[in-house]
Amino acid sequence: MATIAAAEPTDRSLEVHWTDGVVTRYPWLWLRDHSHDPATLNPVTAQREVCTAELSAQLTGLEVEVGTVAVTITWDMLEPSSVLPIEFLAVHRHARTARAGVDVPVVLWNSGSVHTSTMAYDDVMASDQAVGQWLTRTLQYGFSIVEGTPVDAASTEALLRRIAYVRETIFGGFWEFQPDQARADSAYSNHELRGHTDGTYSHDAPGMQMLHCLEFDGTGGESTLVDGFAVARRIEAEEPELFEVLSTVAVPGRYLGEGASLLAARPVFRHDHTGRLVQVSFNNYDRAPFLLDEHDQIEFYDAIRAFDQLVNDPAMQWRHVLQPGQALLFDNWRVLHGRSAFTGNRRMCGGYVNREDVESRLRQVV
Question: E strands, the chain, where?
Fold first, then answer.
């Protein structure tokens, strides 16, 4: 951890010089707002207790004492002294736009460079450290397989609950399905499913999905996965004008059935407020009707044609017939999934977990 070499008060800030050469200017109001004393930061809930809006805009530090583990500030007004751990200040020593999410380095892939990460069921069930490795690898590569998963829905659900509670949707919580058209969804058939993400009709699409094949007595049924981030980078490099369309045109998705009429809209490539690509969202089956101006509409079709062709290009795909005992977990905000047509009976189980719950679990186990 970086340590403080010197701290110099100015009219509006405390200028901190770190031993590695970094210089940070912390506004006095920021330091008061982030004090770690119990009257400011609740030690049980970690919630802020001070009313920030009531702090004087002219607040200035009167005395600053740099200790071995904390900085103590005495104020020039009727404010209690503030104590801020040096470790906390070090975390925030670089000014940057706030961004949510966990910082797991992403490895892009295609069929020639894909890395299939595997974990053992018993390890994941027994160790939080293994859960951390499992989730880290899933976010790094977009998917992973847990080998040795008992071939029953209850054991598979228990595995998913090692991450978080199972998300309830129109399909229920943890579900089983087979080609019986029990739901108004193409997944409940034996037809080919081209690459897609789930929940385009939800404002907050499921963050991760698990699938486990419990029984298969037919032919075909090869699962396909595509790294949507890799597809995005290719389109950005080769056809930037289409990348812009896919990044800006809000595409509506809908679900009609089971007494539900769901509708949401977002671009195929969704970026956060820092410009970082955070989600790929595409499901041609569920795309709802919408009409743009003539030029824009034709350009949109050009864009999704380019995208769809890459997603369904075998050179971009990981293909594998899931076997009983192999629980597949994948990032539904990055990886598009599909399957080839099949014959016979194919019984699957699975469920969703929310993105924020995946990130919450990861922060606690790494």
Answer: 4-9, 13-18, 23-27, 61-66, 70-75, 82-85, 118-120, 143-147, 175-177, 193-196, 208-216, 223-227, 251-257, 260-266, 269-271, 277-280, 317-320, 327-331, 335-339, 346-353
The domain made up of 118-365 has a fold known as Double-stranded beta-helix (3.60.130)
pLDDT in tens, 43-62: 999 999 999 999 999 999 99
CA distance 318 to 223: 8
By C-alpha distance, which of 3, 4, 66 is closest to 74?
66
pTM over 0.85: yes
Question: What is each CA distance from 49 to 41, 46, 340, in whole angstroms?
Answer: 6, 9, 56
Select 4-91's CATH number: 3.30.1380.10, 3.30.2020.30, 3.30.460.10, 1.20.140.10: 3.30.2020.30
